[in-house]
Write a structure and sequence with these properties.
The complex is a heterodimer of chains A (445) and B (31).
Chain A: H1 9-20, H2 27-34, H3 36-64, H4 71-79, H5 81-113, H6 119-138, H7 141-172, H8 190-205, H9 221-250, H10 261-268, H11 271-296, H12 298-305, H13 323-336, H14 345-369, H15 383-407, H16 411-431
Helix pairs in contact in A: 1-7, 1-9, 1-11, 2-3, 2-8, 3-8, 3-9, 3-14, 3-15, 4-5, 4-14, 5-6, 5-11, 5-13, 5-14, 5-16, 6-11, 6-13, 7-9, 7-11, 8-15, 10-11, 12-13, 14-15, 14-16
Chain B: H1 2-27
Classes of the chains: A mainly alpha (445), B mainly alpha (31).
Chain lengths: 445, 31
């Protein structure tokens, strides 16, 4: 038997922070595009309507089945191998689009320091980010957890300075109003602004199931995962609101465009904070990729353990790290790096909602079929109330996609691509032998 | 609370380091 270094609560909260948020980067563009009032409304309402229900349901699932492979295992246990595979497929396909974004974000902040960066250099930097994170991942889950703990502090420290200085100046000027006017951006209606913003707000507040794939590598996972959710969700919400509200009160909201955090910090505090915030942007993009590589690489691992992918991907080293699965994932993400996936975001949100719906369905099914299956945490509600709770995020995510398709031209191709990729899941299942091959679980190298 | 306290301590350590580096840069503006 191998001794597997377990991730503890602090490390898991940090990994969760980066599999969901990564800090307030990106939200400055949200404020500028929808207007201050709608942006604040979205940042307050999304965690309540979307994240709290998602975190509660995911918390119960992660607690009742704290296994490596997380959501894949939940859906497989509830509905069988095919549906488990499809859930894993949706998440993995979604990850290809998701993981192409972080090298682009990294380059956006690197251009603050090196504005003349060419195409070849950009590509090399993107590969360096991917393989740097891969190296860290190959050193084991505990290393990723410890590093993520420091990355959270590195990302949040300059925003702490910005928020403190801005708050002191805001409170010192009693005439400065609460920064919610205009409610929506000029040239948009209230619904139009919501349509533009709600997908992005959900994007910044979702992914509470991502870290469940390392369920087998967490110390006392059944209790630790829900406890980590209870810390990470308030942390993410507080970070968003505390960084945005005071700085917004002191600056012109029209200057809040994508990538403007360094300029905003510079305007409120001084040029030195611009540099620090841009450096934090670099750390955030790297840490997001690093934590998500940890989480997503466990999908090929468990698919291989179940005989749906080559057995080599099921091998783990003496620390329990699936080296081959990490390397193959990094290769796949290298192939898609810098592909302009921006237009596919609406589709990405749909793929995620399909996977999430399967997971919520699995919870209802498991409560019905296996009432004795209980972990350390259980949502204190009966099945009907649980179904309503699960319907809230799914309905919000679907209306978000609908609003986005109406308000932007780029939405529909994304939805079509998502539909084709989702439909390819059953084909892939059949092509991979439908799980006829069996491999012993937890093969050690 | 331990998790949040550890995060705040780390942020303070990093902020102090940045303040020291910034102070150093101000002492030697032409270096």
């Amino acid at each position: 038997m191998t001794s597997r270094p377990a991730l503890r609560l602090g490390g898991l909260v940090a990994v969760m922070f980066f599999t969901v948020s990564g800090g307030p980067f990106g939200l400055e563009g949200l404020v500028g595009s929808v207007g201050p009032g709608v942006a604040i409304l979205l940042l307050v309402a999304t965690p309540l309507i979307y994240s709290v229900p998602e975190a509660l349901l995911i918390g119960e699932l992660a607690s009742m089945l704290p296994a490596e492979g997380g959501y894949y295992q939940w859906v497989k246990r509830a509905f069988g191998r095919f549906w488990g595979f499809w859930n894993g497929w949706l998440s993995w396909v979604y990850s290809l689009i998701d993981m192409a974004i972080y090298p682009v974000l990294f380059l956006q902040y690197l251009r603050f320091f090196l504005p003349e960066l060419g195409r070849l250099e950009s590509w090399l930097v993107a590969l360096a980010l991917i393989w740097g994170a891969t190296w860290l991942n190959l050193r084991g889950t505990r290393v990723v957890g410890t590093a993520s703990g420091w990355f959270v502090a590195l990302v949040l420290a300059p925003f702490g300075v910005l928020a403190t200085v801005a708050l002191a100046r805001w409170l010192g000027q009693p005439a400065t109003p609460f920064p919610a006017t205009p409610f929506h951006a000029t040239g948009t209606s209230f619904l139009g602004a919501l349509g533009i913003g709600v997908s992005q707000s959900i994007w910044n507040y979702s992914g509470w199931d991502n870290a469940s794939t390392i369920g087998g590598e967490i110390e006392q996972s059944s209790a630790t995962y829900p406890r980590a959710l209870a810390r990470a969700l308030p942390l993410v919400t507080a970070v968003y609101l505390l960084t945005i509200l005071p700085a917004l009160a002191l600056t012109d909201w029209k200057t809040w465009t994508d990538g403007a955090w360094p300029q905003i910090a510079g305007a409120v505090v001084g040029p030195w904070l611009s540099v620090w915030v841009a450096a934090a942007g670099l750390v955030s993009a790297f840490a997001l990729f690093n934590a998500l590589l940890l989480a997503y690489s466990r999908i090929p691992l468990v698919l291989a353990q179940d005989g749906l992918l080559p057995a080599a991907l099921a091998r783990t080293d003496e620390r329990g790290t699936p080296r081959n699965a990490v390397l193959v994932s990094a290769l796949a993400y290298s192939g898609f790096t810098l592909v302009p996936f921006g237009g596919l975001l609406a589709g990405d949100v749909l793929l995620y909602s399909a996977a999430l719906a399967l997971e919520f369905g699995a919870l209802l099914q498991l409560r019905h079929a296996e009432p004795a299956l209980r972990g350390a945490f259980r949502v204190p509600l009966g099945a009907p109330a649980l179904a309503v709770l699960g319907a809230l995020p799914i309905l919000l995510i679907l209306s978000a996609a609908g609003l986005e398709i109406q308000s932007r031209e780029i939405g529909l191709p994304g939805v079509l691509v998502a539909a084709v990729l989702a439909a390819a899941g059953p084909v892939a299942y059949a092509a991979l032998g439908g799980g006829r091959r069996k491999v012993k679980e937890g093969v050690a190298a | 609370m331990k998790v949040v306290a550890a995060l705040i301590v780390r942020c303070c350590v990093i902020t102090t380091l940045v303040a020291v580096i910034r102070g150093g840069a101000h002492d030697h503006p032409h270096s």
